[in-house]
Amino acid sequence: MxxxxxxxxxxxxxxxxxxGRAVTGVSIDTRTLVAGDLFVALSGDPGPRxxxxxxxxxxxxxxxSAAGEAGAAALLVSNDVESKxxxxxxxxxxxxxxxxxRFARARMHGRVAAVTGSAGKTTARSxxxxxxxxxxxxxxxxxxxxxxxGVPLSLARMPEHSGYGVFEVGMNxxxxxxxxxxxxxxxxxxxLNVLPAHIGQLGSLEAIRQEKLDIRQGxxxxxxxxxxxxxxxxxxxxxxxxxxxxxxxxxxxATVQTSADFLSxxxxxxxxxxRYDLATTGEHLALTSVAVLAVIHALGADVGxxxxxxxxxxxxxxxxxxxxxxxxxxxxxxxxxxxxxxxYAIKALTQRVPGRRIAILGEMLExxxxxxxxxxxxxxxxxxxxxxxxxxxxxxxxxxxFGDRLLVHVDSVDxxxxxxxxxxxxxxxxxxxxxxxxxxxxxxxxxxxxxxxESD
Length: 456
Hints:
Structural class: alpha/beta
Strand content: 15-25%
Shape: globular
Number of domains: 3
Number of helices: 15
Largest sheet: 9 strands, mixed
Strand order of the largest sheet: 6-7-5-8-9-10-11-12-13
Number of strands: 19
Distance between the termini: 50 Å
CATH topology of the largest domain: UDP-N-acetylmuramoyl-L-alanine:D-glutamate ligase
């Protein structure tokens, strides 16, 4: 049982209703609610603490009846509602969710890691979960639950007796990481990388760096900040810092050898050498694996067992997953993109032989005034790609930069002719799909592409 009724009352500082059922989960969405869950009726407005981009039009109180029909055990509400379910009434349900998160974190006595970065943090979080779960019961964020409701929801779902907790922390605007890090209260905090994602909101790479480094603000006493070797600076003096990277001077130093289908990594941790293979491609993913091992080491977990798990790791959906369809290899990296992760993905594509390399690239969003320049840099990185398709306004001014490699540019994925695209492919080709979340991922483009290839 996740929450006993008396613990819910204690966490929310309530005395009524005295009678209620224990709950087995916590949900904010009736579409995914499981029987036995506590349904938290969030309003669409997170209040002044969080940016307006986090606001929605719906109010969870409108779905109380649906929650009951789905089998909810109880409700967390801020309004009077008509329901036979026991209702915990608070002034603000988002604040109530944060209260549940704090209580859940305080009662869990295992080791906790927080993960942030401009790209790859979901992969790092997923890999940490997979590795640590083989050592002790481990609870982790799901999907990309890394914002003002995703982090507290993930914490509220954490079983009391978890041995490890792994939580993803994200941001779109300045000032968002510190309160989330303080809520997670990690023993180890990882900054995977600092890239020009959200630069349109923060204005500069240095501002992004400072915001990401604020994840250390929530560290426990004697906590450890894990950062790339090239990110470490003398201005971070308030916590212990552990560096990782391909530089021999890093605390956790690695080398990598690439092949068409896997990566071979050698890493040194505390003067002990390890070697492992990853069933994926791209040096950026090798670097992510090194960061993961640095966190494992900092947590005090078994590094040797972690290395044994490396070859079994799976990528989260949309983060470089490979599929075969009619003799073509599809690389689904469509969940999101920024200029550096786009370049990483293109470099990994060009390392695949034999066969032609085809890149279907969606525009990168939230780049502000630097958007045109950064899209042109991506175009120039495609020199060894055989065929390119671009989607979105961001690539509208880069057609000449691609030269004869550009098959077609369209303003929207809805305008992309799959029959035309498939006609230029052939067995043995590798097709990369990469772009910002709103371009391909939300439109389920890769699934449509695979279906069309298999029915051709």
